[in-house]
């Protein structure tokens, strides 16, 4: 039985950037939004230009990923089919990615000097639900 | 009867910045943390250097404010006592501010070119629960 979700189950939701005197308002996620699946933690991950953080898989966490600063290329890997999906989001393509558990993922900074990934996760950090592979364990041209 | 909370009820919680290859991890808030009071929305508010956004009061929203980019001076005003409290948080003093409802607040960017405020709120945006005053309605030296 294959429990790995299809990469089609990753949602891409365009978000509003609202022009506001003194500094713009950028939407993130509301409890009523598609893709929200409970609240466990919000944290931030900086990614330096041309750096790569890969590969991880969450066994139980659904991630909601928003990039308010810079631009980040995310790669997703479906092991059972040996296929990839790439999505680049950030200030120039301001969307939220909803990533179900059990998908291998990595990401790379494509903005100088660095980009900020915000993860609104349905679980608090738990090292026991994270699987890791080395960068070169999955062949992908970053 | 005074329903206005004391300014002492604003919590300041130091947060971790974790040195990580490729880009640091910055903590935000976990569901189990002191100050968390439910999830309604995450949104971002940019604040330009020397810009001021003031004054607002939420009637029902508890804000959890985190500044992963730049530095922001927040001012809080207790009308019944005519007193202020100021807290400057951001990348150089990386803390979370938990602000109960019914406190007047405003904020100013003290970092060039701009700073990013993240609000993890217990309610989704509802214009009916927001009170506003003009900048000059409350006398404060920004």
Number of distinct helices of chain A: 0
Structural class of chain A: mainly beta
Oligomeric grouping of the chains? homodimer
- CATH topology title of chain A: Jelly Rolls
For the CA atoms, what is the radius of gyration of chain A?
15 Å
Name the average pLDDT of chain A: 97
Number of DSSP strand runs of chain A: 12
Write the H/E string of chain A, N to C. EEEEEEEEEEEE
Q: Report the CATH C-level class of chain A.
A: Mainly Beta
- How many domains make up the 3D coordinates of chain A? 1
**Outline of chain A:** globular
CATH-derived architecture of chain A:
Sandwich
Taking the sheet with the most strands of chain A, its summary is: 5 strands, antiparallel
Helix content of chain A: under 10%
In CATH, the homologous superfamily of chain A goes by the name Jelly Rolls
Distance between the termini of chain A: 31 Å
Largest interface: A-B, 37 and 37 residues
Low-confidence stretches of chain A: none
